[in-house]
User: What shape does this take?
Amino acid sequence: MANAISHNEKYSNLPATASGALYLGSLYYFTGKPCFKNHIGLRYASSGNCVSCIEEKRGVFFDTEKTRFSPENVILAINAMADGHLKYTSQSPCPKGHFERFTSSNNCVQCNLEIKINRKEKLRWNRMHKLYGVSRSSFETMLKMQCEQCSICETKLNQKNTHIDHCHKSGKVRSLLCSRCNQAIGLIDESIERLEKIKQYFQRHNHAS
Assistant: This one.
């Protein structure tokens, strides 16, 4: 009981709910109730997770006296929230020089976007390596060796239209193709006989015309 009282005294100035903490620009809130591991302490306003549980899981202890909001930014964030905005312009830039912040967390909007893009790129290359055994560096080498052109039609390749062509039987990577050529190979089931028949078909009809 004494431990609970000391906690209540220490965190008495904090909001009791996550929504209240977010509104005031606080990273934490304090309910006075134990978590499932019986910690009576701070909770994260952004997720509701127990700070002590996260510290135990990561083996790192956080400085809970720090805040992401300066007094000036608290006012700006609260005013933005009152006007129904999810973002506001900070008086000072983040370490990368950006000014736009989220009202709920004070996180930099641009940095947050860059993190998401980097994470998406990482997942993409992990998938490429898992499916084809091709790393990002080996892909870039292949692209350079092909002069950034499709191996069939020599169309200029870019990030959106480049496909890794591979043999569906052996799984061996053959080359980089544009979207149309890659799709065409798939539509004829990689059949040389069908391709030859298509060639003969065009020759017949071109001759007839």
Remarks:
- Confidence is low (pLDDT under 50) at residues 1-5.
